[in-house]
Amino acid sequence: MLIPWKCKNTFFYILIFLWLIPLQSVLAITFGKLPPNKTAVYVADLQTGKIIYQHRADEAVNPASTMKLVTGFVAMQQLGARYQWLTEWRSDAPVRNGVLQGNLYWYGSGDPVFDQRDLQRMLAQLRAKGIRKINGRLVLDRSIWSNTGSAENFIADHNEVFVTPPDPHMLAYRVWWLAITANEHHQPVVNFDPPLPNVTVNQQIKWLDHNIPCPSAEKFIHTTFNGHTLHIQGKVPKSCIEKKWFINTNKLAAVEYAAQSFRAWWRQNSTDISYSVGTLPQNSTVLAAHQSKPLADIIRAMNKYSNNTIARTIFLRLGEGQQGDTVQNAKAVTLQILRRAGIDTTKLQLENGSGLSRKERVSAHLLGQLLQTAYKSAFSQEFINSLPIGGIDGTLKHRFKNTQGQWHLKTGTLNNVNALAGYWIPKTTAQRPLVVVAIVNTPGNHAAELDILVRSLIKHH
Questions:
Q1: Residue 359: what are its φ and ψ, rounded to 5°?
Q2: Single pTM value for the model
Q3: pLDDT tops 60 at residue 370
Q4: Does some domain include residue 399?
């Protein structure tokens, strides 16, 4: 059948029109129970850079912990994947006959993963130098940051470890590890790591009359801590022996927790020592030092388990070494690095770089651009490896199951926020890898619905 010329022209223009329409506008994406007017989506082909689908991608939205992608990317660019924090103990006093004739200065580096074993290793360095006694104080220099920034409106969560702020003398996230054991009379007792010397412990625990499984000692033990006294009560089965759990020592300031931990380990093999806050003297010698894991490893811990303390510490590190306000300096460096990388920062609002914030904002487009840039960067593999893998590890261990490890996504969760941002990397070369960003800002927990939406996005690829 011949098509009349006018119809031919119409058909031709329709074809041209369809060709000009971006692919994302003709794809049928089903949002399910997610409100489309509260959801932002961005999907792009990582090989061609072509945007496959976008919806409200330029709207400013709360990213929750997907903000850690911004902090991690900027840190990799600014500091390098091999960057390490250096913690030093110094003194300007001589050592005579095994005695340090003055103060020992702990210069706080803010190392976000410094733990009790690292502290003990530094103490071993003092002993290796023959130091058995300190005729002075432990002085903690906290001058590295002008302030530690804010994470406002999380008062209801003040007892949770995830709101622990960064600190120049951060140590083991200020948690106290406890473990059930039996004493010489075969009665249950709790051991502590570290054995803080300024805390009184009141234990009232007994064995249960019958033994049952112990999935967690916390199920049987009740603890309260007021900053001075730890009360422990409960009846435990013998299956709880050697089971460990932790409590947050948020009643102790970070500097006090660090100093008391030092005292706890030092006085086991020496005399006790007092402490104060002060400034490192100009002419001092290093007596002990510790280097952290490389930044790439620390960012992996941050992203896999969405660690806010690490993220906030890295953010502050970006603002170090300059005059003025550390937080404002960090914000300026972040904007500078992103703009230099060609990433649109128009909708970016920063508070602390972790996503533990009611103020922080990004656009799905910004995160998509950042992920595309990171994918082609010199630190591409380290960045990808830092992300939780669907059904395998981190915050995605129980999500995206049976997907053969193809999803590499940073999660984000706050009240009224669910977010996913990262990569879909197929196992075969028949399909091309994608960057995927999906963020919903609406009341309720919509993680399951967001997973369904994200899975559906690759079906059109």
A1: -105, -30
A2: 0.92
A3: yes
A4: yes
